[in-house]
């Protein structure tokens, strides 16, 4: 999903999204809601396929010759929290006593006792993405507990891009991240605290505990994303 193109389209249609910065913020989400209300769409602030089609079809005011923003792509649209998560790819912990300020921000928002990025932060990362783009979504009481995400939102029988995947990690520990693809035996997961950074990694399907989806967003059409190519399989994400 091209957030900047959506912002440009909304602005041209008279629905002010705030700064045209390519970042999915609350002003952009509010502009989407106003557009959806005006066009008789389900009002959730999410640019899914129906809203994308309506944005493409809506007439831009201003007469002939007015610049029209790029037409948005049809087809599968990544959910906004996955778009937000991709912005942080490569973000790493700071070795030693210091902590990465962004990781610290996510962690402290999730729990007051989060004091440094040596504390497992996969749950803080997932929490941070939803908190940024879905302000009405009910999040886990203890989002730093990875296994606690197994009761978040609603369950899915099959994953779709952006679905929350919860994995076991030993008898009591866990890991949580976002589905971006799979092969025959593994899921491709975008998450935090993977090799001490925000990365994509492979995790065996047999470790899966739950597939979850936010309750304030319409359920997705299940979409299997087959990822070709090798790469190592993660066995311990802490």
UniProtKB/TrEMBL annotation:
<dbReference type="InterPro" id="IPR013423">
    <property type="entry name" value="CHP02594"/>
</dbReference>
<feature type="domain" description="Peptidoglycan binding-like">
    <location>
        <begin position="2"/>
        <end position="55"/>
    </location>
</feature>
<dbReference type="InterPro" id="IPR036366">
    <property type="entry name" value="PGBDSf"/>
</dbReference>
<dbReference type="Pfam" id="PF05257">
    <property type="entry name" value="CHAP"/>
</dbReference>
<dbReference type="InterPro" id="IPR036365">
    <property type="entry name" value="PGBD-like_sf"/>
</dbReference>
<protein>
    <submittedName>
        <fullName>TIGR02594 family protein</fullName>
    </submittedName>
</protein>
<dbReference type="InterPro" id="IPR002477">
    <property type="entry name" value="Peptidoglycan-bd-like"/>
</dbReference>
<dbReference type="InterPro" id="IPR007921">
    <property type="entry name" value="CHAP_dom"/>
</dbReference>
<dbReference type="Pfam" id="PF01471">
    <property type="entry name" value="PG_binding_1"/>
</dbReference>
<feature type="domain" description="Peptidase C51">
    <location>
        <begin position="117"/>
        <end position="193"/>
    </location>
</feature>
């Amino acid at each position: 999903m091209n957030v900047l193109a959506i912002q440009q389209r909304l602005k041209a249609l008279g629905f002010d999204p705030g700064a045209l910065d390519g970042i999915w913020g609350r002003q952009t989400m509010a502009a989407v809601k106003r557009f959806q209300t005006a066009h008789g769409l389900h009002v959730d602030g999410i640019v899914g396929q129906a809203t994308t089609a309506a944005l493409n079809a809506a007439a831009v005011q201003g007469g002939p010759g007015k610049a029209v923003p790029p037409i948005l792509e049809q087809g599968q649209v990544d959910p906004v929290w996955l778009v937000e998560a991709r912005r942080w790819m490569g973000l790493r912990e700071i070795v030693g006593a210091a902590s990465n300020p962004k990781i610290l921000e996510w962690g402290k928002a999730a729990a007051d006792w989060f004091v440094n990025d040596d504390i497992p932060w996969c749950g803080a990362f997932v929490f941070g993405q939803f908190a940024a783009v879905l302000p009405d979504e009910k999040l886990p009481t203890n989002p730093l507990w990875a296994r606690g995400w197994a009761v978040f939102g609603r369950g899915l029988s099959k994953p779709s891009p952006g679905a929350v995947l919860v994995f076991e990690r030993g008898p009591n520990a866990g890991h949580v991240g976002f589905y971006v693809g799979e092969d025959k035996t593994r899921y491709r997961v975008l998450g935090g605290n993977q090799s001490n950074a925000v990365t994509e990694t492979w995790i065996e399907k047999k470790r899966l505990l739950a597939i979850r989806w936010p309750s304030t967003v319409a359920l997705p059409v299940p979409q299997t994303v087959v990822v070709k190519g090798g790469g190592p399989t993660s066995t311990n994400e802490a």
